UniProtKB/TrEMBL annotation:
Entry keywords, A to Z: Calcium, Chloroplast, Hydrogen peroxide, Oxidoreductase, Peroxidase, Plastid, Potassium, Thylakoid, Transit peptide
InterPro entries named among the record's database cross-references: Ccp1-like, Haem_peroxidase, Haem_peroxidase_sf, Peroxidase_I
Molecular function, one GO term: L-ascorbate peroxidase activity
UniProt feature coiled coil, ranges: none
Reaction catalysis annotation: L-ascorbate + H2O2 = L-dehydroascorbate + 2 H2O
GO-annotated biological processes: cellular response to oxidative stress; hydrogen peroxide catabolic process
Keyword Plastid belongs to the record: yes
Chloroplast keyword on record: yes
Organism: Brachypodium distachyon (Purple false brome)
Domain of life where this protein originates: Eukaryota
Subcellular location: Plastid, Chloroplast thylakoid lumen
Protein name, as recorded: Thylakoid lumenal 29 kDa protein, chloroplastic
Length: 364
C-alpha cells in the first residue's frame, strides 16, 4: 500500500491480490497433483485511487496513519467493472490482470464444452451408462506403485478401446470424437484433450441422471423437476471438479490387465481394484451406475457382500429422498477424486494471448 498527500487531496496505491478461491493450484482444497504454471509471468500491478480529505486536520491525520479501505470502496469506486478481485494478505501471492483473464478464458471455454456435451447427451441419452463406464475405465488404469495410468485419455486409442473390459463403449467414444470436432472448432486455446473431454462428459452425463431423477419425482413435469433440482439438488457441489481442468493426453495405451470386466467380475475383484487405487467399498457402492448399464442389477450383486451392503442400502435410501444428498454428494466427491488419479494438471491450459492494456492510459 502506498500513501501520499498533496493539496488536500490524498492518493492511495493498492496492490490487488488474488483470493484463495482464485489462486487455482495454490488454494486450499485442490488435489495434491503436480502443477504446471509460469511463475515468471507474475507481476505486481498497482491501481491508484483518489479520496478527498476533509481539511487540514484530516490531511494531517492521513499523513500519520494510512487509511483503511473496504474492498467495495476500491473495487466499486476505482475499478468500476472489475469483478472477482480480493485484497488479502500479501503472503498469499499476487494475481496479475493476466491471471484473472486466463481464469475467465478457461471458465468460458469449459462452459461452452459443457453446452456441447449436454446437447450431444440429450440427443443420445441411451449412451449415458457407457459414458460413465468410459470415464471409469480410463481412470482405473492408474497404478499407485508406478504412478502410471489414470485418466489420461488412453482409452481413445484403438489398442485399448478394443479390450474386453471396454466392450460396448465404442459408441460413446465415437460421440465424444464428434463433439471434440465441434469443440476444437471454437476453441481459442488449442484442441481439448480427450483426457479432459472424457471426464467432463461423465460429469454432464451424471448431471443428466440427477436432473432426470428430479423430474421423475415431480411426476414427469420438467419445469417443476428443474426447479426441484435447482433448489435441493447437488448442482453446487462441482466446484473442485471444474478446477481440475488441463489434463494431458498420453500417446500410448496403458498396460493391459489393470481394469476388470465389471459385468463378469466378482465383488471381491471389484473391491480389490477400488482398494488398489485408494478407494474402498463405500466408493464402489456409490459408483454402481458406472459399472454397467443396469444399476439395479449391479447393486443386487454388491448388496450380497457384507462390506458393500451398508453403503448400497444407504445410497438406495438416499435416492428415495427429495434431495438425494448423500448419494449425489458422495458420487460427485468420488468422481472428482477418480478424475485426477496420477495426473499432472496444467492450470494454464486452453488460455490464449490477450490484448495488452496500457495501465498508464486508463482513466479511473
Amino acid at each position: 500500500m502506498r500513501w501520499s498527500s498533496k493539496g488536500g487531496e490524498s492518493m492511495a496505491g493498492a496492490t490487488f491480490l488474488s483470493a484463495p478461491a482464485l489462486l487455482g493450484p495454490r488454494a486450499g482444497g485442490l488435489p495434491s497433483v503436480s502443477v504446471t504454471s509460469s511463475p515468471a509471468r507474475r507481476q505486481h500491478a498497482y491501481v491508484c485511487c483518489h479520496a478527498k480529505a476533509g481539511g487540514s486536520e484530516a490531511a494531517a491525520a492521513a499523513r500519520e496513519e494510512p487509511p483503511r479501505f473496504r474492498r467495495r470502496d476500491l473495487i466499486g469506486g476505482c475499478m468500476g467493472t472489475a469483478v472477482g478481485l480480493e485484497i488479502i494478505d500479501g503472503s498469499t501471492g499476487v494475481a496479475t490482470a493476466a491471471d484473472l483473464i486466463e481464469r475467465r478464458q478457461r471458465s468460458e471455454f469449459q462452459s461452452s464444452i459443457k453446452g456441447t456435451l449436454t446437447a450431444a447427451i440429450q440427443a443420445k441419452p441411451e449412451l449415458v451408462p457407457s459414458l460413465l463406464t468410459l470415464a471409469l475405465n480410463d481412470a482405473m488404469t492408474y497404478d499407485k506403485a508406478t504412478k502410471s495410468g489414470g485418466p489420461n485419455g488412453s482409452i481413445r486409442l484403438s489398442a485399448e478401446i478394443n479390450r474386453p473390459e471396454n466392450s460396448g463403449l465404442s459408441a460413446a467414444l465415437d460421440m465424444l470424437t464428434d463433439a471434440k470436432k465441434e469443440i476444437d472448432s471454437y476453441s481459442k486455446g488449442g484442441p481439448i484433450a480427450f483426457a479432459d473431454l472424457i471426464q467432463i462428459a461423465a460429469q454432464q452425463a451424471l448431471k443428466q441422471t440427477f436432473l432426470d431423477a428430479a423430474i421423475a419425482k415431480t411426476g414427469g413435469n420438467e419445469e417443476k423437476g428443474r426447479t426441484l433440482y435447482s433448489a435441493y439438488g447437488s448442482s453446487g457441489q462441482w466446484g473442485l471438479f471444474d478446477k481440475i481442468f488441463g489434463r494431458e493426453d498420453t500417446q500410448e495405451p496403458d498396460p493391459e490387465g489393470r481394469v476388470p470386466k465389471w459385468s463378469s467380475a466378482s465383488v471381491q475383484e471389484m473391491k480389490h481394484k477400488f482398494i488398489a487405487v485408494g478407494f474402498g467399498p463405500r466408493q464402489l457402492a456409490v459408483m454402481s451406475a458406472f459399472l454397467g448399464p443396469d444399476q439395479a442389477a449391479t447393486e443386487a450383486k454388491l448388496i450380497a457382500d457384507p462390506d458393500c451392503r451398508p453403503w448400497v442400502e444407504k445410497y438406495q435410501r438416499s435416492r428415495e429422498t427429495v434431495s438425494r444428498t448423500d448419494y449425489e454428494v458422495d458420487l460427485i466427491t468420488t468422481l472428482t477424486k477418480l478424475s485426477y488419479l496420477g495426473q499432472k494438471i496444467n492450470y494454464e491450459a486452453y488460455t490464449y494471448p490477450k490484448q495488452k492494456i496500457n495501465l498508464g492510459k486508463l482513466k479511473l
